[in-house]
Amino acid sequence: MQGLIIAAGQGTRLRGVAPSKPLAEVGGAPLIEHVARAAVAGGVNELVVVTGYRPEPLEAFLGQMGARLRIDLRTVRNPDWPGANGLSVLAAAPFLTGDFALLMSDHLFDPAILAGVIAERPPGAALTLAVDRRIDNPQLDLDDATKVELDGERIVRIGKTLNAYGAVDTGIFVAGPALFEALDRALAEGGTGSLSEGVQRLADRGLAAAWDCGGRWWLDVDDEAAFAKAQAALADQRGLPST
Q1: Shortest CA distance to 105 belongs to which of 141, 54, 177?
Q2: Which residues are within 8 A (CB) of 212 and not within 5 positions of it... i.e. 6 or more apart?
Q3: Is 224 exposed, middle or buried (0-12, 13-18, 19+ CB in 10 A)?
Q4: Which of 28, 144, 162, 169 is 20 to 30 Å from the Cα of 134, by its Cα?
């Protein structure tokens, strides 16, 4: 399965740690290398990485990393990188065929989550999102988390400002070409092109499913507090494999 990693943003809240968030080193390797290794361990055999902010040093690192991991890795620049994250998905669309894993460069995770989504996604779903129902999890920053309202395994609503929700978005998806169409439709209707807008449009058609991560470890490393949590988790061997 192909994998898409979004790595285009500025990461301003981690600027005190590193000038490029995907290259911020934690647990002996840059964030994006942990994500790539987890992707491969979870079932991905080809990677597309979308860059944007400060692309040159990141792309140079990715070239070396792809060779070390022995994986086919392509980089794609998003010229609209200051915009919503769905624009990075659309930038990669010409290089993706069929279903693909969609990952964030700053979301560390147990590879078993991705493997589970790939193996157990509902056959009729255009998109399956790994969710965490532990909304009281102290590792979460609920103010910043994307919330998900569910009806069984079906996504009803998704967004950062939901008042009623039963899970949070882990940033780990398996999707297909219908996501590109949904994002294009969101833009045509005056949206920003955020990934959540695309997911919501699929949800409105009953095509977006949720897969419970079952308490497995993941972490959105979006600021220095989360970065410290990642350091502690990886040091305690609860995070991603180093090989």
Answers
A1: 54
A2: 130, 131, 132, 133, 167
A3: middle
A4: 28
